[in-house]
Each structure stands twice: as structure tokens, then as C-alpha cells.
Amino acid sequence: MYILSENDNLLETFKLVIQNSPVGDLNNGVLNDVELDENSNSAIFQSTLAQNRDLTGYGNRYIILICKEWTPSSFDTISDISRRIVALNSNGSLLIVKKEYKTEDQLRLQEHIENIVQKWKTDWNGLYDKIRKLGDSLARDEALVKVTKWTSPLPPRVTMLDFDDPTLPQKVQNFFGIQGHLIIKDLITQRTNMFTKPPVLHWTNYPRDSEIQISFKFTFPQGSFPEPAFRELTSICRTIHSWEYEYEWTTGLFLREDLVKITAVRTNLYTLEISGRIDQDEVSEGESDAPMKGVWPYLAKCFKSTLEKLEEYDGLPYQLNLVFIGEIFFHKTSDGATVASRSLDAIQTLGAIQRIGSVRFKANDKIFALDTDNAFPGFEPRTLLDFCYIQSEDSEPKERPSSAPTTSIVFEEASPTHKNSHAGANSALLNIKNRGRRVSFGAIHAIPSGGALATNSSPLKTISPGPGSDEEQMDMESPSRSSILEYVDEMLNKTMDEVLVLE
Questions:
Q1: Label partner for 45 (CA 20 to 30 A): which of 31, 37, 54, 272?
Q2: pLDDT digit string, tens, across residues 241-250
Q3: 85 in a domain, yes or no?
Q4: What pairing do the DSSP bridges indicate for beta strands 271-279 and 211-219?
Q5: Domain-located, residue 288
Q6: What is the largest CA-CA distance in the chain?
Q7: DSSP 259
């Protein structure tokens, strides 16, 4: 339950109106630290400005406070919240409280809501007809079942009240059917504890030249997929595997396991991309023929969690595309032409694989074909569910190759959204093939011993911690404690300017 206001003054006035009425008379005020037992008849509304509406979650009761004059932003707020209520398919309630209320305002509001619902029906019935006309396939049948749920939405129950009506608190109470008190709390979000930028040393918005990527791109109706729903999804993705490295920022989540990089990113307020990426130059020779083979087991886990979460919102519609980035995913044309990236409709792609065993598309007036062996190594997806059960051939964790003798010194900067699951005082610090790009944010993960330094001109070798350490080997090969301390002091002075540390 949420209250959205066009400005602070309007919100504070509304709070006072509720507080000074019998409706809000709980411990003589509008409180921010209120805990109600499950048998209470009171209702808690979280309040914020309308411009922050994306930070509010799903709910069945919304109040929007409107100023004297209608503005485009007024209708944008009403539209987003209306679509969010429709997405829940629960016949939720929306109350508009407007200054200087006029009779024609109610008619204008009703017309606007009807237009929103009608456009929703037109858009998703249109998608249903488009899918129905596709050739027979399991993906088509699977999609029709989903889209059918989105074609007949329940419109929100909407009305408007006069902000200056002396009986406003009682009318609000009656509209929502609140038997007890109406309690207003300030909205609290997770954003204050998050980084604002992605981990640039690990991740760029577009893959580097040697990197390849496959993404599941979900496109939702405007306003229907708010940030709290996205955070629930990222929380699930973090727990489905013990990741080597985690990093969360305001618009995304980065996960890494060995060479595999997985992200869940909101590219805008209505688009979600679940991506898997790997650097071809870092893949071992034995896996270079199919570099995505090691990515899919991890990408599939996050995709499965995403589908399962979206199923909980029965009426939330989306369109799904498969995005391929990297020339390796496309066959060259007869004249040698290539394409580096392409976004393809997921249903048509899977249907084409089932019917004819290939996926063709037109770009730059040429016909290209998807290289399905490289895109889907070792499996042939025909439905979305086929992606959900991809397993790694080796269920046991891969043992990373040992490096030169190392110390057990690890420096880690604590962060609520930054984790290296293998770092520890006794972790073995092991090499992976890289090009000096895998320095973890906010941390110096290892300082090699003198023996390692003598064979490498680089003052700080970037390495990933392994799953465990061999104490006996470290006792035999590590320098003495005093030499370690001297080495640490010297190297810290030399290298701190070269290490990027996140704020």
C-alpha cells in the first residue's frame, strides 16, 4: 500500500490531515516505527514522491496526490500505477486525491483509465494473434498459454476525492475498507547501501572485442516491473550458487564464477536483461571450439529463477528476445559478409530450430544464419523450459591450476553488496589466464611471494583465490614472517597507486 505525491508540501499536508483525524489517531500521530500484529485491522501506507514511484513495489492499494492542475507527469504516474495494478490481476484499488477538485476531473480520470486498459488489451491480444499465426512448434504452444493470461486484464477500481473535503480521512478509510487506523510511513529503499556504477574492471555495457555474450531480454509494459520486484530477482540469483564474486549496484547484479560472467541488469525501467559472457582469449584450448558451453549452466540457473519469479505475477506480461553478441554466433554469407550482433524473437527462434533446424534473418540486405552449434553447444532448445535444465558436465567444482608460491595475506574492503566467496585468511591464491583486467573492486586479493615476483616483471599479478589452501606446502615454500612483513610494506607503497579501489 503506497501514497505517491506530486510534491512534498502536498504529502506533508495529507499526513497532517490524516494524523489529526480519528482515522489516524494511533498513539496520537502518523508513525514511522509501527509494528502491527497480524490480527490488526489497521493499514500501513508507505509514502514517497511520485517521481520515485519505481521504488515502490506491487500492492493492491494506492493513493496518488495531485496538485490543482493536471500535468503530463500526473497522467504518467496514474498510467504506471494502473498498469502495475493490472499486472497483478487482482482488481486493486487506486484513489486519486486532487486539489480544487471539479466534477469533470472524475470523468477525465475515468476516460484515462479506460484508455490504459483498452491499450493493454489491444497490445497483448495483438501479440496473441501474431504468435497464433506462427508455424506449429512447442515454443508457440508454450507462448500461447502464457499470453492468454494477459489478454483480459482486470481494471483497477478507481475514484477521485477532493483534497480539501473535511471528511477526506473517513472517505479514504471507506474506499479501501479499512476497519482500523490508517498509518503512514516514509518509504525506505535498499538504494542507500548500493554502489551507483557497475564493476567497470569486470564488466562493460557492451562486450569487448574478444568477449561473447548471450542475453535473455525481457520487455515489460511501462511501470509494471518496479525496482523491488527486480531486487527480489537479484536476491534469488545470488543464492542459487556459491559465486566466486558478487557485486550489486543500483541497476544491476554482477556474478562471476571462474571465467564466466553473469549479470541481471535493468537497462531501463521496463527492460530486464539476464546475460552470460565469457572472454574467448581466456578460454582453455579444450573449450575454445565452444566457449559458451561453460557459460550456459550458470546462465540457465538465473534464467530459470527469473521465469519462476515472473510466474508468481500471473498477469505480468512481457516479450522475450534472445540477444547474441559476437561473430562466433553467426555464419558468414557466401561473399564473406559478417554480422557482430543480433536480437531475435525468442519464440520464433525456438520454433525455427524445431521446424527446420536453423534460424535465418535479414540484416543489411543480406540473409544471415545463426550458428546454433556455437550459440547452444551440446543442446537444442525448443521451448523456454529447455533452457532451465542445462547442467554442467562436471558437477564437481573445477580445480584451478596452482600458481607459484604465495602468501596467505588477503586485504578485503567490506561492502554490503560486494562479496568474494573464496577469500579468506588461509585461501590459496591461484592464477587464471587473463590480461590484467580481473582486479576485484575494493580489494587487493593477493601479494605474491618473492619467488613469484622474480619470474614476473609485473609488480602485482592479478589472480583469483582458489577453493582451499595447502598449509603444509605454504609452510615449506613461503618466506619467513619478517620477510613477508617487509615485502608487504614495500609492495604496498609501490602498488597502491596502481590499484583501483571502489568508493
A1: 272
A2: 999 999 999 9
A3: yes
A4: antiparallel
A5: yes
A6: 87
A7: T
- In total, how many domains does the chain have? 3
Measured distance CA(160)–CA(157) in Å, rounded: 11
Selection from 205, 358, 372, 374 nearest residue 291 by Cα: 374
Dihedral (CA of 303, 308, 313, 319) sign: positive
- What is d(CA 169, CA 184) in angstroms, rounded to the nearest whole number? 12
Determine the Cα–Cα distance for residues 75 and 72; give it in Å rounded to an integer. Answer: 5
Quick one: 310 and 263 in the same domain? Answer: yes
Q: What number is the average pLDDT over the span 261-288?
A: 91
Q: Do 49 and 5 form a contact (C-beta atoms < 8 A)?
A: yes
Domain boundary among 341, 357, 389: 389
397 within domain boundaries? no
Question: CB–CB of 144/131 below 8 Å?
Answer: yes
Same-domain pairing of 184 and 204: no
* Residue 182, SS3 per DSSP: strand
Count, residues in the chain: 503
Cell (9 digits) for 231:
531486487
Q: At 94, which helix (H) or strand (E)?
A: strand 93-98
Q: C-alpha angle with apex 218: 213 to 219, nearest 5 degrees?
A: 130
> Which DSSP letter does residue 415 get?
B
Q: Can you tell me the distance from the alpha carbon of 411 to that of 444, in angstroms, rounded to the nearest whole number? A: 5
Residue 160's CB is within 10 A of a number of other CB atoms, namely 21
Tens of pLDDT along 400-452?
333 333 333 333 333 445 565 444 333 333 344 444 344 333 333 333 333 33
CA-CA distance, 26 to 355, in Å (whole number)?
Answer: 65
Q: What is the DSSP string of 290-331?
A: SGGGGTHHHHHHHHHHHHHHHHHSTT---EEEEEEESGGGEE
Give pLDDT tens digits for 15-73.
999 999 998 865 544 444 445 444 457 889 999 999 999 999 998 899 999 999 999 99
Cell numbers at 252, concatenated: 544491476
227 and 325 housed in the same domain: yes
Range of the domain at 442: 411-498
Residues 154, 61 within the same domain: yes
User: Residue 398: inside a domain, yes or no?
Assistant: no
Same domain, 482 and 434: yes
Q: Which of 357, 389, 421 is the last residue of a domain?
A: 389
Tens of pLDDT, residue by residue over 354-372, are: 999 999 999 988 999 999 9
